[in-house]
Amino acid sequence: MRRLIFLVSWILIFNLILGVMPAFSQKIPSPSQYNSPTEYEKSTGKRIIHFKEAPQLADLVKQGKLPPVEKRLPEKPVVIVPVENIGKYGGTWRFVLATRIHLPHTERLTLYDPILRRSPDLKSILPNLAENWKVSSGGRIYTLHLRRGVKWSDGEPFTADDILFWYEDIICNKELTPVFPAWFSIGGVPGKLEKVDTYTIKITFSKPNPLFLEDLASPFYGEIFAPKHYLMQFHPKYVDKNKLEETAKKAGFTFWYQLFSDRNDRWANPERPVLSAWKPVNSITGATRVVWERNPYYWKVDTEGNQLPYIDRFSIEIGVSEETAKMKAISGEIDMESHPIGIDFKDYPLFLEHKDR
């Protein structure tokens, strides 16, 4: 019941924001995305003839440092419908943060790419990393079919093994996850996740779990995957535990699971591969600014076949007070923000007064 109240509250709050601020929003395209270029052609009669990429990536392809864009995209890339028009490549998306504790606010703006996703109007659930799904046995069984050919930011394939690794080796491991996630349970009984084949997983619950699709599309729960090919080197199931403990101590940790958690933190460890539109350049640990740059293997395109994202990078300045953040905002030094500014309606007159800057 608590999870249902939380979910409904989350949706109501965002619908309220969408409803009371029409001056800040554009009309949401419908549909907002297509599941593949073929689906886009069938629906619109328009065809994506070939794929294109950001100039900086095209240069890396010429230098032989990256495969061609066609080989970096999945078999069926998601086609995103632009809100206004086709974008231009380039630029830096600038944020500020008071402390790292507020990072989830910015993360939900920039890195929201769970296994499924919410439509922009929050009214429906859309395919994402899972191309399609089936609910059976009265809501007890969920079968997810993954998008074939998606790659991690280091070029390695994303498969059902990455989801199985997250389930068996992270959330079912008592040292890494002492308390099994309540959202992946029903009636106190944990759900069971199985690999059907390379691109298919099945999740079974002891009772119907009608909110599970909502969870899979949630920015809080929907990332049910981890890069096995990278993280297995820090896990005792795949590495001698004594050697792993030695490695942990050399890195300044007491136990192996502390080392694993650190290496699995995409903000602290820029070497960890990601599936998001941008990938980390530097660690947030001890930094006053953290930068993420475009992921050359991102698996979405626009309606003209341009690989997304348009923006080259995003940059977060850390340790900025609320008053300093407001001054940066009204002087045009911040592009979009959710914390520590923009959360109090009393500040909106100030921002509106300086909106042209």
Strand percentage lies at 15-25%
The biggest beta sheet reads: 4 strands, mixed
User: Mean of the pLDDT scores?
Assistant: 92
Total DSSP E strands: 15
Order of helices and strands: HEHHHEEHEEEEHEEEEHHHHEEEEHH
Low-confidence stretches: 9-24
Q: How many helix segments? A: 12
Radius of gyration equals: 21 Å
Helix content: 25-40%
- In spatial order, strands of the major sheet run 3-15-13-12
Intertermini distance: 45 Å
Structural class: alpha+beta
Shape call: globular
In short:
With 357 residues, this protein is of the alpha+beta class. It has helices at 2-20, 37-44, 55-62, 69-72, 103-110, 160-171, 212-216, 228-231, 241-250, 256-263, 322-330, 348-353, and strands spanning 33-34, 78-80, 92-97, 116-118, 125-127, 130-136, 141-146, 185-186, 189-190, 192-197, 200-204, 278-280, 289-294, 300-302, 313-318. The chain contains twelve helices and 15 strands.
